[in-house]
Automatic annotation (TrEMBL):
Organism annotation: Clostridium pasteurianum DSM 525 = ATCC 6013
Pfam family name, one: DUF1256
Recorded superkingdom: Bacteria
Official protein name in the record: Putative sporulation protein
Length: 191
């Protein structure tokens, strides 16, 4: 189990580091015959908070056995529907393994880095929202600097940074699924 891995999204081997880190987790989960849920959290109404829906959108084609995706640009998972979505997931799947993908704020030297941790993500923390922690594993992309006026910081985050992080995270997830689950397709996609 991975405790905490921080990956610089500008490194040449970023995608492969994400792939290898996630593959270890996915393999052990598949051996337990648990469904894997990619829960992509955020909203398309704020540039800085759009990382999750962008990742979900980029992975919409990733239809595999035991892999289910919630959250994309068309149907984002955000503060208003997160609790209902978690309830739906837990009632639909037996012992789901949830990989939560979300944006976060951090120090200036860490903007553009990706953190993978064996702990839940706490959605809405930057906005002081009272939402439940979610996920067995979290993938967070540091989109901008933390400090004061987080709402304004998220609204004024560069789209380039968010898109680059979304590309790296989605490609890393894709390659980890291909490496572990393979190319077998089914017809289940949840949004």
């Amino acid at each position: 189990m991975v405790n905490k891995v921080m990956i610089d999204s500008t490194e040449n081997n970023c995608i492969f580091k994400i792939r290898d880190t996630l593959s270890k987790e996915i393999l052990s989960t598949l051996k337990e015959n648990r469904p894997i849920i990619l829960l992509c959290i955020g909203t398309d109404r704020s540039t800085g908070d759009s990382l999750g829906p962008l990742v979900g959108d980029k992975l919409n084609f990733l239809i595999r056995d035991h892999i289910f995706i919630y959250g994309n640009l068309k149907s984002p998972i955000h503060a208003k529907n997160l609790c209902d979505t978690i309830t739906k997931i837990k009632s639909t799947y037996k012992n789901p393994y949830i990989i939560a993908v979300d944006a976060c704020l951090g120090s200036i030297q860490n903007v553009g880095k990706i953190i993978i941790e064996n702990k839940p993500v706490i959605p809405g923390a930057a906005m002081n929202k009272d939402l439940p922690p979610v996920g067995n594993l979290s993938i967070t992309g540091i989109v901008n600097i933390a400090g004061s006026l987080e709402f304004m910081v998220l609204q004024n985050t560069r789209l380039y940074v968010v898109m680059h992080l979304a590309d790296m995270i989605s490609k890393g997830i894709y390659h980890s699924i291909i490496k572990t689950v393979g190319g077998k397709r089914n017809i289940t996609l949840n949004t």
